[in-house]
Amino acid sequence: MDDINKDDLFCDYYEKWIKIYKEGAIRKVTLDKYKMTLRWLRKLIPDLKIKDLTRISYQALLNNYALEHERQTTMDFHHQLKGSILDAVDEGLLDRDPTRKAIIKGKTPSVKKVKFINQFELHTLLDTLELKNEISWEWMILLIAKTGLRFSEALALTPADFNFSRQSISVSKTWDYKGDGGFLPTKNQSSIRKVQIDWQTVIQFSQLIKDLPEDKPIFVKGKVYNSTVNGVLERYCKKAEVPVISIHGLRHTHASLLLFAGVSIASVARRLGHSSMNTTQKTYLHIIQELENRDVDLVMRSLSGLS
C-alpha cells in the first residue's frame, strides 16, 4: 500500500485494500461480496481518483448504485466501502472522511416472500413428506425443521456427527455447495455447537445412516444446488396448502416456534449458532415484540387481581 498515492484510481486502491486486509481473513462468500463491490466501482466510477473522492462524489456513487438496488443492499455497499475509505484517511490519502453524513437511498423493496410458517402449518407440511427408507431431500427438510440448521451445515453432516446416545448432532463444518464442493469452516466460531434432537429423530436417523461411510456427507451425491431443495420444499408446501417458504425459511420457522413456546433468546441464539443474541433479536424482532405485547397483557391481568 506504500506505493499508492492520491493520483491513483480509487478502484485500484480498493482492489489492493481487499487483497491486503480481506483475503485470508474472511470467508469466501464474504470476500466475494467485496469483489462484487469492486466490480460495481469499476462500472460506476472507473476514472475517479482517490484525491477526487469528496462527500459529493461519494454521495453520487451511492445514488447511482441505489438506482438498481434496494436500500438494504445499498447500505451493505456503503459499509463495504467505508472501511477502505477510513483507512485512506488514516494514511493521509484523503484529508477528510467523504462518507460522513452519507444518505442511503434505494429502490422500493419488492414484496418479501413468507419467511416462516406457524406450528399448525409446519405439522401439516411435515405430514405430507414422503419419507422412505433411504436418505433423501425429504429427510433433510424434516431435519432442518427440527434442528434449525443452516442449509450448508445440514449438507456437511456425516454419520460421525450424530451422537445417538446423547441425542445430539455436532455442527463443526459446512459444505461448499456454491463452489466446487468440499468441507468449509462454519460461518463463525459460535456456529460450532451441539444441537439436541428428539428420540423420534434419533430412531429414524440411526436406521437411515447405519451403513453409510462415517466421514462422508449423508445428503451430498454430486453437485448440490440450493434451488433443487427449494423446489422440492415448494412442491410439498403446495401439496400441504401452506405458504411456500424456502429451506432457510425452515430455519426461521424453527426459531419462531421456539420463541413462541417461551424458549429464551439466549438458548435460541446458541441453538441457531448466532454470533450474539443481538443477531437473534434483530432477526426475530417482530416475534419478540409480539411476545412482549402478550407479556404486557399477562402483567395487566395479574395486577388487576390485586386488591
Automatic annotation (TrEMBL):
DNA-binding as UniProt keyword: yes
Keyword DNA-binding part of the UniProt annotation: yes
InterPro entries: DNA_brk_join_enz, Integrase-like_cat_sf, Integrase_catalytic, Integrase_recombinase_N, Tyrosine_recombinase_XerCD
PROSITE patterns referenced in this protein's UniProt entry, alphabetically: TYR_RECOMBINASE
One record GO biological process: DNA recombination
Pfam families reported for this sequence: Phage_integrase
Annotated GO MF terms: DNA binding
Gene3D superfamilies: 1.10.150.130, Intergrase catalytic core
Residue ranges of every copy of the Tyr recombinase domain listed in the record: 112-298
Top-level lineage group: Bacteria
Keywords assigned: DNA recombination, DNA-binding
Family: Belongs to the 'phage' integrase family.
PANTHER family registered for this protein in UniProt: PHAGE INTEGRASE-RELATED (PTHR30349), PROPHAGE INTEGRASE INTD-RELATED (PTHR30349:SF64)
Name of the protein in its database record: Site-specific integrase
Organism of provenance: Faecalibacillus intestinalis
